[in-house]
Design a protein that fits this description.
Elements lengths: L5 E5 L2 E10 L4 H17 L10 E4 L7 E8 L11 E5 L2 E9 L7 H13 L8 E5 L12 E7 L4
């Protein structure tokens, strides 16, 4: 189930993240460690994430995913090992909130966002963000909430 898709302006967001490659089968193991490493790098600098964790998907090759795993922060922090500072750029995005288990169930929300982008004659950048509002560690799969975001090219 997902909320109505919309196109809106998104401000830039400072972040700390790790960029890596992995397969979809390894994703659950990789994400837990990566989120922990990023949170630790933020905490070592006396800061805390200011929002929920995210994963940016730079491709959809399920055997060789190019992903960035991170948290938004209030200000640019120092790199710590493979955890680097950066920014999620400002701009127009297509977005919706999906409620339900990760995986195949999200396909409908992705398809609806793709349809909206096409109808509005927008062009996606090719990156997809998933922002996770709760954790599968303590939330039943049917209640997981994920914001899906497609950044759009400037026209």
């Amino acid at each position: 189930m997902f909320t109505k898709c919309e196109i809106k302006d998104q401000p830039a967001q400072t972040m700390m993240s790790i960029r890596m490659r992995t397969s979809v089968t390894e994703l659950p193991n990789v994400l837990g460690k990566a989120f922990g490493d990023v949170a630790m790098a933020i905490g070592e600098q006396g800061q805390q994430p200011i929002g929920p964790p995210f994963v940016a998907y730079y491709n959809m090759d399920m055997q060789d995913l190019d992903i960035e795993v991170g948290f938004p922060v209030t200000k640019k922090l120092q790199a710590r090992g493979n955890v680097k500072p950066g920014d999620i750029p400002a701009g127009k995005v297509a977005t919706c909130i999906y409620t339900g288990p990760y995986g195949d169930g999200m396909k409908e929300a992705y398809e609806a966002l793709t349809k909206l982008v096409e109808e509005k004659k927008q062009v996606p950048t090719g990156v997809a963000y998933e922002i996770y509002f709760n954790s599968p560690m303590d939330t039943p799969p049917e209640k997981l909430r994920t914001q899906i975001v497609f950044p759009l090219k400037s026209t």
